[in-house]
């Protein structure tokens, strides 16, 4: 998987990219082939922002978060949003496959 990290108006901690890669690798358990992740970290006035764009085969997901505490918290919140979107997509996909299988048995 290709990982691109961009920083706007802040210096990034050196371990942030490694931490992000380890967290994103856990998302692969949903059965999707993760193609790329573009992470944009920034600071706007008093807020740290994280915008994660995840490209999956046939799908692009975006997770955005703001936090006053620090950049790691905003990254965790954005990753949580991506995880929820992947779970939702996976459940819809599984339901569709179950429905198709049921229709084939009836027909």
Describe the SSE topology.
Blueprint: E1 2-8, H1 16-25, E2 34-44, E3 47-56, E4 59-67, H2 71-106
Parallel strand pairs: 1-2
Antiparallel strand pairs: 2-3, 3-4
The CATH superfamily is identified as Ribosome hibernation promotion factor-like
Mean pLDDT: 92
Distance separating the two termini = 41 Å
Secondary structure class reads alpha+beta
Q: Please summarize the sheet with the most strands.
A: 4 strands, mixed
| CATH architecture verdict | 2-Layer Sandwich
CATH class: Alpha Beta
How much helical structure, as a percent, in the residues?
A: 40-55%
The succession of helices and strands, N to C, reads: EHEEEH
Radius of gyration over C-alpha positions, nearest whole angstrom? 17 Å
Offer a few descriptive terms:
elongated, four-stranded mixed beta sheet, Double Stranded RNA Binding Domain, 107 residues, 35% strand, alpha+beta
Polypeptide structure, described:
- This protein is an alpha+beta fold and 107 residues long.
- It has one domain: Ribosome hibernation promotion factor-like (Double Stranded RNA Binding Domain, 2-Layer Sandwich), CATH 3.30.160.100.
- It contains two helices and four strands.
- Strands 1-2-3-4 form a four-stranded mixed beta sheet.
- The chain is elongated and about 60 Å long.
- The mean pLDDT is 92.
Task: Briefly summarize what is shown.
With 107 residues, the protein is α+β, with helices and mostly antiparallel strands. The chain has helices spanning 16-25, 71-106; strands spanning 2-8, 34-44, 47-56, 59-67.
């Amino acid at each position: 998987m290709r990982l691109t990290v961009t920083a706007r108006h802040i210096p990034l901690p050196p371990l942030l990219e490694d931490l992000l890669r380890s967290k994103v690798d856990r998302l692969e358990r949903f059965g999707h082939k993760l193609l790329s992740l573009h992470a944009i970290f920034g600071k706007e006035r008093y807020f740290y922002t994280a915008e994660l764009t995840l490209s999956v085969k046939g799908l692009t997901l975006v997770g955005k978060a703001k936090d006053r505490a620090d950049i790691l918290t905003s990254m965790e919140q954005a990753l949580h949003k991506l995880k929820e979107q992947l779970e939702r997509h996976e459940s819809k996909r599984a339901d569709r496959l179950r429905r198709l299988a049921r229709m084939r048995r009836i027909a």
